[in-house]
């Protein structure tokens, strides 16, 4: 038991990498840009379908997939699922 505790203590004494305010701002902006790129691509190329095909940049409709999309509900799931991220990323 003592050996297990010692091993856990030794492995947890690593120095954390601290992110500067500038790096944090840069990562925040990059994340926002990536989200908005994906959102705008979906709205331009796939809305109101549930999904966007990433390579062809076209909508994925149910007709060609049989019952595979039954769980998605056919109600623009991508848009509904991303609403909270959209609110955070508003311009």
Give an account of the 3D structure.
This protein is mostly helical and 91 residues long. The chain has one domain. It contains 4 helices and 2 strands; from the N terminus they run ααββαα. It has a two-stranded antiparallel ribbon. A hairpin with a 4-residue loop joins β1 and β2. This is alpha-1,2-Mannosidase. It holds the Pfam family Glyco_hydro_47. Its main location: endoplasmic reticulum. Belongs to the glycosyl hydrolase 47 family. It is found in: Endoplasmic reticulum.
What global shape is seen? elongated
Biggest sheet: strands, sense, closure?
2 strands, antiparallel
Strand/helix succession: HHEEHH
Query: Can you give the helix content as a percent range?
Result: 40-55%
- Proportion of residues in extended strands: 5-15%
Q: What is the CA-based Rg, rounded? A: 21 Å
Number of helices: 4
Defining traits:
mainly alpha, 51% helix
Q: What's the SSE blueprint?
A:
Elements (H helix, E strand, L loop, with lengths): L1 H10 L9 H25 L5 E3 L4 E3 L16 H5 L1 H6 L3
Antiparallel strand pairs: 1-2
Short description, anyone?
The protein is mainly α. The chain has helices at residues 2-11, 21-45, 77-81, 83-88; strands at residues 51-53, 58-60.
């Amino acid at each position: 038991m003592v050996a297990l505790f010692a091993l856990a203590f030794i492995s947890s004494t690593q120095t954390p990498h601290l992110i500067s305010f500038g790096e944090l701002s840069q990562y925040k902006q990059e994340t926002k840009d990536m989200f908005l790129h994906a959102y705008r691509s979906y709205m331009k190329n796939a809305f109101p379908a549930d999904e966007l095909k990433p390579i062809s940049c076209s909508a994925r409709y149910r007709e060609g997939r049989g019952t595979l999309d039954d769980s998605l509900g056919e109600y623009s799931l991508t848009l509904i699922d991303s609403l909270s991220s959209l609110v955070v990323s508003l311009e």
